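Handoff note, outgoing to incoming analyst
You'll be picking up this chain. Sequence as last confirmed:
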Amino acid sequence: MKPKGLLIAAVLLAVLGGLWWWSGRKQEADIKKSPDTTVKLLTIPEDQFQEIRFKRGVETLVLRRDNGKWRIAGPQPYPADPDTARSMVTSLSSVTAETTIEDKAADFGPYGLNSPALDIAVLTKDGKTGEIQVGDATPTSSGYYARVAGSPRVVTLSSYVKGSLDKSLNDLRDKRLLTVEQDKIARIQLQTTGPAVEFGRNGESEWQILQPRPLRADGGQIDSLIFKLRDAKMDLANPDPDAAKKFAAAPRVATVTVTDSNGSQTLEVHQDKDKTYYAKSSAVDGVYKIAADVGDGLNKGLDDFRNKKLFDFGFSDPGKLEIVNNGSFAYTKSGDKWMSGAKTMDNSTVQTLIDRLRDLAADKFADKGGGKTVFEATVTSNSGKRVEKVTIAAQGDRYFAQRDGDSSIYELSAKSVDDVRSAAGGIREPEPPAAAKKK
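Most recent structure output, in case you need it:
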C-alpha cells in the first residue's frame, strides 16, 4: 500500500475510534442521568388497615376489619376469605409503580383517570386515608395507568400488581362451608353408612377414636379429613340453580360435626345418581355442589381411621428392645452402642429390626384371633416413658397381633411377620477388625 493510502487509513481509524469513545461516554452519561422512575404509591403498616373500599363505576365494595377479622360490609354483609384479605392487605401496604409517565399531568383523560375503572381507598385505624386510582391499559397492554388521588403524577402499574388489587365480591367472600379454625378443632363426629365415629384429642393433642368405642386413631387420616373439610367450598363461579332440589332428592352419604373453642358446625353431604356431591352447612345459607374428592374423603368408615401400626414409637430412638423369637433376648442402648448384657452388638443389625418393627402394620382388623405365639417384642422409648408390647400368634397360615392394653386384633401378612422374625434372628456381634497385613 502506498504511504498516502496508509495515512488516510490511519486518520479514518482514529476518527472511528474517537466516535466510538464519545458514543460510549455519552451512553454512560445518559445512564447516570436517567432518574429512578419507580415510585412508592402507598406505604401503610399492615396492622393499621381498618377498611378498604373498592369502587368500580357506581358500585362500591367495602372490606372492614372488626376485632382482628376481616368481613365484607357492603354491598351485602358476608364473611371475608381470611387468606385473600391478608394477601390484599400485603399488596396494598406497599404499592410500587413501574414507571412514571408524567410528573405533572394537565389532563388525566388520555389515561382513563378522569373516571377510573378501579378506585381503591384505604382507611387506617388513626383515620388517615390512602387512595389509588387505576385507569386504562397501556398501549402494549403490559400495564395500567394509575395515580394517587390528588396527585398530578401519572404512573404505570404492572399487570401483576393491578391483578393483585382488583378483587371482586366473589374473590373476597369466604367460600368455606365450615368456618371453624382448623388448628383449634377439638372434636369431630362423622356419620356415614356405618356406626357414628367420634374423634377427640388426648392430653398430648394426639387424635383418638372415642366412639363407637375407644380405639387408637391414625392421626394422618384424621388430618386428611380436616383438609377435606377445609376444601368444602361454595362454587360461586359456576353455581347450580337446582342444587337444593338435587340435594333433597339424593341420599345422604355423610354428616360431619366439628367443634372448636367457638362451638360446633355441621356439614351434611348427599350424592346423586350421577356421583355428584351436594352439601349443606349450618354455618352458611344455601346448598352447594362440592368437589368429588371432598365427598369421597368424607365417605369413609371406622376402619379407615384406625391406626394399623403396631408400634407408636415412630422415629424416636428406642432405648431398649426385648424379643422372644426362638429364645428370649434383650438389647439396651448405651451411648451410641447397642448392648446385650456385656456384649456389644452390631448397630446395623439392631437398626434393621427397629425399622421392621416401626413398619409393622395390619392389613386389616379381625373380630377374633388366637393361635400359637410365635413372636413377642417389647419396645421402650421416649426416655423410658413409653413401653409397648406386641404379641404375634399364628393360626394356620394367618397371623394375628395384639398390643398390651389394646383389645384390637391386627391381622398381619405372612411376609411382614417373616421380615420381622428374620431381622430379630439376624442380630449379631460386630465383625472383628481385619488383621493388618504383615510387611
